[in-house]
Design brief:
Length: 242
Amino acid sequence: MFITVTRSYDEMSQRAALLVAAHVIVKPDTVLGLPTGSTPLGMYRELVRMRRETNLGFSRVATFNLDEYVGLPPDDPQSYDFFMRTNFTDHVNLRRDRVFIPDGRARDLAAECRRYEKLIERRGPIDLFVLGIGQNGHIGFNEPSHALQAETHVETLSARTRRANARFFGSVSKVPRRAITMGMGTIMKAREIILLAGSKEKAEAIKRAVKGPVTPAVPASVLQLHPACRMFIDSSAASGLG
Ligand code: PGA
């Protein structure tokens, strides 16, 4: 695991955006794995700026999102589909038929998980995966547990994750109880991974992910086993590393 500690959230965002842009320039049909949440907002803003000011081209790029809540329609402002359109995909020249997000409203969720996994297999491998991390060490919605599921699956959200995400919904009771998420095995097949963390609330999770044992109790710790995983973290998120 390579770790770059940045001076600020903005520097973290710029570095992440530059790495994504470099991939897209070198390989115009790059396959990206992408996250949602507060952390990557700065990176998406920077990529949209680059598109506008430098004409960075995404026309051959394909993107796969990590996860989606179960039950939210795509026009619900809290759905990750909505998040991606408003923060990124509507503002760059990505083709809609190359933007993939699990369908959290599928009637048969198990079939939807299999379909998504197959799609990644067919269009992949993912060249660059950008990840966030939960305060509890989760990746996507792979929650701390005694065992991890390798492939795309339905996960029941932990109480801590629902509390952390309540800020978006107004109250914890409105946070969905389940989500579709890629599994750690799906994520680990990416050629290159960058993980972003830009607040002190993530310091403990970063410390356990980097310095602790590889354990399903800290899903991010599995990234220690990836041959090309880099963290871009600001100094507050790095404060537990010593
Ligand atoms: P955040 O979420 O970027 O909103 O902190 C990250 C996560 O929970 O994985």
